[in-house]
Amino acid sequence: MADTDKALHIQGRLVRLRSIEDTDIPVLYDLIYQGFEPEWKKWDAPYYPLEPHTLESYRSHEHARKARLKNGEPDSRLIIEVEGRIIGTVTYYWEHKPSLWLEVGIGIYDPDYWNGGYGSEALELWIDHLFRHLPLARVGLTTWSRNERMMRVGEKLGMKVEGRMRKCRIYEGAYYDSIRMGILREEWNRRMVP
What we know:
- It is a single chain.
- Helix content is 28%, strand content 32%.
- The chain is an alpha+beta fold.
- Strands 1-2-3-4-5-6-8-7 form an eight-stranded mixed beta sheet, with helices on both faces.
- The longest helix has 16 residues, at 118-133.
């Protein structure tokens, strides 16, 4: 799927972000769809059902996603690797492309890699890459109030809470807030200066 001439590799201290190759699809599929209710899904928007896929429909979905990219637009999804092991993905999507309103996301599917700084570094590398390659004024991140780890990661990266929609998510019979966080390009540039 990824053209080796155009394959992207972003190396950090703990993680590497890279383009998804065809050989990665079965590994990602197993990580994402591990069992009936994977642990990661309990934290990543569990109020939305996990879209069911077979390995082949997931492969087709990945190929279609890649084909939708516009010329010069960065890949919208990269793998997160630790020492050659795939642990998750980083993503972005356009909330409103004409105004360059972009939201990022991250999924660490392997709980063994939670709370070790892997997600923070992966998201930092990803946001920096997007600011470098797109004419964005801001990058946003949406989560929910039960996912305190994700909110801490956003804060650690300099994001501010820009919106809180109270009691609009229901999970396991309880109400939670939807949290919108964001960082402006000038704020990002200031924090990246040593």
